[in-house]
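Q: What structure does this chain adopt?
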Amino acid sequence: GYCYCQWYCYVYSKMISFLNMVIRVLIFLQIINKTSLIWKKIVLFFETFP
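A:
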């Protein structure tokens, strides 16, 4: 039983760290999307500006 619990805790910690990584990547991608949108707006503004 103890060995099973150790294995379960190991897998659980690995899953948690993997989920943290995925969440970080998603947040990073969201930040990139937002900054790219802001850049597009700035570029559009300067293009429309005579």
